[in-house]
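Example record used in the benchmark description.
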Amino acid sequence: MFGSIRKIKSLINTMVNFDKRLGEIQEALGRIEDRQNSINDSTCLHDYEFKVYSQWGEDGIINYLIRNVAIKNNAFVEFGVGNYMEANTRFLLVNKNWSGLVIEADSANVSFIKSDPIYWRNNLKADCTFITKDNINELLKTNDVIGDIGLLSIDIDGNDYWVWREIDVISPRIVVIEYNYRFGADNAVTIPYDANFVRQKAHYSMIYFGASLKALVNLGKKKGYSFVGCNSNGLNAFFVRTDILGDLKVLTAEGGYVLGKFREARNKDGRISFLNYKEEASILLGLPLIEVDD
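Model output (structure tokens):
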């Protein structure tokens, strides 16, 4: 019996060490990718993509932007991070030694983050709160995050537009925000604000959420940000504060729009329905949307 227990413990230790080494290899490969990108002279964000901890190629795009934007405060805020194993800021934290605040509504995910060695090895704080436009500024102030910061990443699958619109206690130099590609390139629309919005409950399809790219580009202009591109998979849009834009190329919503390559629509049984873009868009036609011009 005791021999079996020792074997199980040994196996667990081996798995833990393997995961640790795998993470170190991922980070090392990311650093190599970043150095190679530093000699690239392209102006297209897609040419700088690489993935270490991000969902798609956001790690590479973010590293490209911080090489071209003067960052005075190496701090970030990211909303909607799950358990933080896949996130837009994790590579910044471990590779560039940035400091950060992550906000997540699921208490189990926040407990996981706080038990991850990354939490004591780095200057990271995790807050368990459901974000609304009414609590976001006070939440940031309570966590001592105010003024000029390096980066803000917003991905809450719902009121993203309304929350960004409300934020005024921080002035991030770079903003990464999810857009809903199904609303097209020409429409400036968002879901109506609902403080209790939950994507999984709003519509069985799981594709009714967020805002169009054009709505976010228009809002960005109002807030003093220039749109510099999307990732190649059609998920996230990138903005840089216009006063420190430098030589980065500014795009229109129509010129920088990327149609999503992934399919995640569900049928009423909760299974992926593998709809094409037109079929997904048709689902949204009968659902409440607000036109915004900002």
